[in-house]
Design a protein that fits this description.
coiled coil; mainly alpha
Length: 368
């Protein structure tokens, strides 16, 4: 009984295995068939895609041909219209001006002119692109001229600088010499015995001598006395005797005959000298060169006082001559007489003693 049951079970199992094998075999065959179908469909798809791309290319070419043909037709129509307009214009021009130029020639000339204009514009644009950053030769030459001018000016200024340095050095030497002379005079005045200057107080009114002689050296006191004597003598004169018109006479004193004494005060002379120096410096700065003081002085008096210029000239000359304590007037007198160079006067003018000016004013007050 058990054996028969097991045999039946085995048979059933074998039958099931056999059925499974058949199903697997059928499924494999179906799979292989489906794979073949898929391959065929892929090939068909590729061929269809190739056909579509070819059709698209053909369509694009056809559209391009159509567009070119359309453009060509439009251009042809435009040219036909232009030719018609030209023919009509030529007919009209021929009718209106039978004796004028040939319209065909004019049309050809117009075309040539337009071509030339286009070519010129192209060349102009090329020139602008190639030479846009280039400086014109005219501007370059102008800049070279300016550079040469500035170089010459610099050379002139350098020469002037060297000359000024030389003059400054010489002026410093003169300054040192003046200082040495002043120190030598002071030392000499200290070593020299002093006369009895107090006796001179009787000559001057009240306490004038005490004021004038305060802290003065012997040479300065002698100058004060000589100035006092010269001032009194000058105030007593009514006329000056002319020096003549010879060449050796200074230009501001050239006169024959008697010259009236104006009896100028020290203040008037000092103010006049300041005006003369100011006007002369202004004129020299404008002209760029130094003029002669005697000539300028007499010319200034002529312009200011006219016919009375010679009287003012003699009055100023004599006042400066006797004012030994006024370095300003003595300097001006020495310049007029040619004893001092005018170049040195600009340095010496800075060392005018204020006390001498005060002394001169005090003496002038005595004579009033």
């Amino acid at each position: 009984m058990l054996v028969s049951v097991s045999e039946e079970c085995d048979q059933k199992i074998q039958a099931m295995h056999q059925e499974e094998r058949l199903e697997i075999k059928n499924m494999k065959m179906e799979k292989h068939h489906l794979l073949n179908v898929i391959e065929k469909m892929k090939e068909e798809n590729n061929s269809l895609q190739m056909q579509v791309s070819k059709l698209l290319e053909e369509m694009a070419n056809t559209y391009l041909l159509f567009r070119n043909e359309s453009d060509a037709r439009k251009i042809l129509i435009a040219e036909i219209n232009a030719l018609k307009y030209q023919q009509e214009a030529m007919k009209t021009a021929y009718k209106t001006d039978e004796h004028g130029e040939d319209p065909v020639t004019l049309a050809i000339a117009l075309r040539v002119a337009r071509k030339d204009l286009t070519q010129v514009q192209v060349e102009l644009n090329t020139m602008k692109a190639d030479y846009g950053d280039v400086v014109p030769r005219r501007n370059f030459n102008n800049q070279e001229k300016k550079l040469a001018e500035y170089s010459q000016k610099i050379e002139v200024l350098q020469k002037d600088l060297l000359q000024l340095q030389t003059e400054h050095k010489s002026l410093l030497e003169i300054h040192n010499q003046v200082l040495l002379k002043d120190s030598a005079k002071e030392q000499q005045s200290k070593d020299t015995p002093h006369p009895a200057w107090d006796n001179c107080a009787d000559v001057f009114p009240e306490d004038t001598w005490l004021t004038l002689s305060a802290e003065k050296s012997s040479d300065q006191l002698v100058s004060i006395l000589l100035t006092e004597l010269g001032t009194r003598t000058l105030s007593e004169k009514d006329f000056f005797t002319g020096k003549g018109k010879e060449e050796d006479v200074p230009i501001h004193l050239r006169y024959d005959g008697l010259v009236k004494n104006l009896r100028l005060s020290i203040g008037d002379v000092s103010n006049l000298l300041q005006e003369v120096w100011k006007e002369k410096m202004t004129l020299d700065a404008q002209n760029g060169k130094q003029s002669s003081m005697p000539e300028f002085f007499f010319s200034y008096l002529q312009n200011k006082f006219g016919d009375a210029a010679i009287e003012w000239s003699y009055a100023v000359h004599e006042s400066c001559r006797v004012q030994l304590i006024s370095e300003e007037m003595q300097l001006f007198y020495n310049i007029l007489m040619g004893k001092v160079k005018e170049d040195e006067s600009y340095l010496l003018m800075g060392y005018t003693d204020d006390h001498s000016a005060n002394d001169s004013s005090l003496i002038s007050e005595q004579l009033r």
